[in-house]
């Protein structure tokens, strides 16, 4: 899962970044409205943490732009404790949740998880696709109740495919999801092919059918 942290307070930005990376999220950061605009137009995210007060503008402007172009990301606005009007306006503009400063990082993690589940998996803690089951809070994958040991990248790849089941997703989109900003520095998709091969092998060894279809010239599709 990929998160964009839009926050100009460096200490808070670093704390959020380190904590969420420890929780196995891929995280990118932006410290201004201009930097955030560039990222949200170039990349897709599962959740955006959006500070309202930015040095060159307002996070509410970013929220308006996201809704104007129908970006599907879950959005959690971050506000000062006394800024009720900002929270109300942000929710009215389409934000999914809000946090007031200061907040506990464990609460941030819970809010992020809840927004992603609600946006992508109907609020459920579990994903079920035929014999494949995923416990999202526990990051546990099973095939016919048999645990499948996946690396972090393999797990992220499976969740991304499940979130986009029955759709063709490009190699570029998958690479960006798995590697964030670093994807554009990769000249080849060898790392993606390796993760895809290992994921398919591990699922097959556990007794799963092969649902990951290669769509030549386009990308991959997870479907029956």
TrEMBL record:
Domain Response regulatory: 2-116
DNA-binding region: 124-224
SUPFAM superfamilies xrefs: CheY-like
A Pfam family hit: Response_reg
CDD domains with a match to the protein in the record: REC_OmpR_PmrA-like (cd17624), trans_reg_C (cd00383)
PROSITE patterns linked to this entry: OMPR_PHOB (PS51755), RESPONSE_REGULATORY (PS50110)
Keyword Membrane: no
Designated name of the protein: DNA-binding response regulator, OmpR family, contains REC and winged-helix (WHTH) domain
Organism: Chryseolinea serpens
Lineage: Bacteria, Pseudomonadati, Bacteroidota, Cytophagia, Cytophagales
């Amino acid at each position: 899962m990929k998160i964009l942290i839009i926050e100009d307070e460096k200490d808070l930005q670093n704390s959020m970044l380190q904590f969420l990376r420890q929780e196995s999220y891929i995280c990118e950061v932006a410290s201004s409205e201009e930097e955030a605009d560039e990222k949200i137009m170039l990349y897709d995210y599962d959740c955006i943490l959006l500070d309202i007060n930015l040095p060159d503008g307002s996070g509410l402007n970013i929220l308006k732009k996201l809704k104007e172009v129908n970006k599907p990301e879950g959005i959690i606005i971050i506000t000062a404790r006394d800024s009720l009007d900002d929270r109300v306006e942000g929710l009215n503009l389409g934000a999914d949740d809000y946090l007031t400063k200061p907040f506990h990082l464990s609460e941030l993690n819970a809010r992020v998880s809840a927004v992603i589940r609600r946006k992508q998996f109907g609020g459920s803690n579990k994903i079920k696709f035929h014999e494949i089951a995923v416990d999202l809070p526990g990051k546990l994958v099973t095939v016919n109740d048999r645990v499948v040991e996946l690396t972090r990248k393999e797990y992220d790849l499976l969740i991304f495919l499940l979130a986009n089941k029955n759709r063709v997703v490009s190699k570029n989109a998958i690479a960006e999801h798995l590697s964030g900003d670093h994807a554009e520095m990769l000249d080849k998709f060898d790392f993606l092919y390796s993760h895809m091969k290992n994921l398919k092998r591990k699922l097959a060894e556990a007794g799963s059918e092969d649902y990951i279809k290669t769509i030549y010239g386009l990308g991959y599709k997870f479907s029956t």
